[in-house]
Amino acid sequence: MALLLVGGAMAFTLLTTPAGSTGEPGSGDSVQVAPVAAVVESGAVPAAVARAGDAYLRGAHWFGDGWAVNFWNTDLLAVAREDFTALKADGFNAVVLVIPWPGFAADRTDGRLVPERTRRLGELIDLAAAFDLDVVVRIGYAWDSAVEAPEGWLLDMWHDPRVYQGWLDYIQSLWDAVGERDNVKFGFICWEDLWAVTWMNGFEEPARREMAQAIGYRDWLSERVTLEQASDRYGVSFTGWSDVPLPRKDEPAYGWFLEFLDYAWIERFFKPAQARFPSLSMEIRIDSDPVLDANGEFDYWHSHEAAWDLPGAPWTTIYWSPAMGGLNQGEQLAPETAVERLQYMLERVRAVTGTRPIFIDQYLVEDFTPGFENNGRIATSAVPDFLEQAAPVMAAYAQGYALWTWKDYRHDAIPSPDFSIDAAPWTFSAGVDDTPAPGLALDAGQGLARSFGIGEFHAPGGPEAADLCVVARAGDGTTGLTVVAPTDPDSPMRLPATGERECVAVDVADVTRIELQAEDAMIIDSLVFSGFTQPSGIREVGGQRKPVATDWVRFNQALEQRAPAPFQLYPDGWMGKALDVDLDLATGADLDVVIETTLPTGWPFQPVLAVQVDGQPVGEAICGTDEPARFLLPDDVRNGRARLTLTVDRLHQPEGDERYLGCQVLRVQTAPSGAQ
């Protein structure tokens, strides 16, 4: 059959081969297809036409002089003005602020915000506005080093109604505090902060049985399968639903648990949170997870596409790195390979999420996070080539991105390195004024001590050694700090108080105790204890530009003008979430747009097609009806050219097909109004 997508005098024709007698996808002969935006007449609409709308979001996560885990415990306003000036110079127009739930809420069951933090957040947003910077807020971030064991909050919210309500109340409080400010673009929660529940799959069986009921998995499962089917999948003869536990990750039933997560992320977390923070998105999980068979062998990959299409969200938020889709055996990637992977992922996401703009909140072109050393990477010297090739792809398929690392940062185990916040269990000598304020004043003989758990360094297994670094000022610059550390407790080390950064290496154990004593009166401006520096920023820790920063400036300039790619049909005539058709309106007469669709026998529902012309709604159609749908084109688009956009309300993944499909389109054309 010939699939016609035409406007006026037939702007273009898309030819397909019949896909079997039932019209179902995935069967039949191979198909040769012209792109939906391809044209056969001169003067037709180009494939990519910039649409009206907001400027491309070019953002960066901002952590001041700290890092994601401790930056709210530092004097942020002291460095924000200088950093925001530098961000603008680098071509950015937005900052991303992570707002931890532990730390902003004083208690896991009480959603009221800590006033001091709320005040500083508001001041930062206002300062960003003064620099013409939009703000995107990540809501519910899991970590804040001022809070002991924040991971417990993440587990409890799944099974304790009081904690769950506290999380929702925190989101409501955040909206009330800053959500309606003009430069707050949107907020997003993140699948990462809802992933801790998978720790429960490693519990002992009695606890897994208890949690299966407590988190709602058992009720969800019992509505979808029989007890006999559950017994078969688990390999256990259950006598009642109360016997069914959470599956282990090495069991076939883990695939069901992953399906439950997709459901819960949307129904239990995103929708209720969005009711409290209306401009809410969610970073969706675009990685797939392996499911094993009964023999412990790989069976299939579970994709989380069922949780990608966020109802009512203003943005689709994702993350990306060149390693995605690779072997990840330490290989070095050519820029061309990384760009192909980027385009593939963006096309795949758009097929499910449709016209909703995509924001890559963690655009990890380079990433050296401990524990991921085997990830495939682009050579640092090849990053400029990658950015040049990636710019048109990003302009066509996304509408925003943010660097996770703008400035390099240290994985600092000290909660408040400048002592501006009462955020650490230091033990001070008698007479020390430990009132929270930037800089700690010590007299001769005074000191401080603290024990550090290895987990506070936030590196898998912990570092073997860490640098203890101080910036301290004393009268003549000849004095310093005596350091007693496990490296050699009987031979104390020394950190000079020169006003510059001075460091000593310290061996790290499961618990590492550090004691410091001032030789003379001094002020400690900064104290950092770090076993790793993330080097993937475009500026050094101190803010100096790296050579690659110039390439990022050019990249940002290239994104100032979007050229969105049209949504296309699959070769067998199916659309995903959306379809674009460029219409050539050669006559000034009243015109209808005619849309003919079909669905295979047995399709579980008839999707509703929302029809827009140049962004104006013109009506709705039911996919798969016998008669073509007709809509009168608006007056202001009856001459010249226009873009028709179809969007379905629901997608379905047929068995044996990797795609999520919307509607099979047979014909789109314009015709004189009222003509058959």
Automatic annotation (TrEMBL):
<protein>
    <submittedName>
        <fullName>Uncharacterized protein</fullName>
    </submittedName>
</protein>
<dbReference type="InterPro" id="IPR017853">
    <property type="entry name" value="GH"/>
</dbReference>
